[in-house]
Each structure stands twice: as C-alpha cells, then as structure tokens.
Specification:
Layout (H helix, E strand, L loop, with lengths): L1 H16 L1 H23 L6 H31 L6 H19 L9
C-alpha cells in the first residue's frame, strides 16, 4: 500500500512538471484521431451506421498503431513478440478516449 501511495505521488509530480509536453502529446493524439475520422468520412456513408463505424475505427486505429510501432522495433531487435503490446494499446486508448470525450460537444438544447 505504501509503495502505491509513493508511486502515485511521484507520478503526479512528474505529470505536473511535464504538463506542457503532455498537452502537446494530447493535442497530437486528438489531431491524429480527427485526421483518421475525416479520412474515413470519405469511405463510409453519412448515415448513423456509417458514422458509428467511422468513429469506432478512428478510436481503435490510433492505439493499435501506437502499440505496433514499439512491437515492430522489438521484433527486429529480439525476434520475439513485444510483451507489453496490449498494455500500450490500453493506455493510449484510455488517453485518446478521455480526450475525445472531453472535446465532445452537442448542440445546445433549446430553451423551453
């Protein structure tokens, strides 16, 4: 328990000190997501199903690519599968999903 508390305090300090760099990474992540989403807009129809599929593929492709890059480099170096592939995919997906949800906006509701 004490190790977890010390770990979260140290990670919090690192995040606070690296805030400008973290912001740049998040902006690059959301920019890549929007680029993939816009690129897939040309492929899928404009209906509800097309929008859902386009959003799903855009949300899944960036984390998988981010996990494949170190996996490929690891493969060339060690000739075996990268052991932390899914952990990287999950972390990138969680970050991307959080940023996408924070930037999601709906049309303002009509005042009755």
């Amino acid at each position: 328990m004490l190790k977890h508390i010390i770990g979260i305090i140290l990670l919090s300090i690192i995040v606070i000190l690296a805030m400008p760099q973290a912001k740049m990474v998040m902006e690059a992540l959301i920019s890549a997501h929007h680029w993939v989403n816009q690129l897939l807009g040309d492929v899928f129809s404009g209906g509800q199903a097309g929008h859902l599929l386009r959003s799903l593929i855009a949300l899944l492709s960036i984390p998988i690519i981010a996990g494949l890059i170190p996996a490929i480099l690891y493969w060339f170096a060690k000739r075996s599968w990268f052991p932390y592939f899914m952990e990287i995919v999950w972390v990138v997906w969680l970050l991307q999903a959080a940023v996408v949800v924070m930037q999601y906006s709906t049309a303002p509701a009509a005042v009755l």
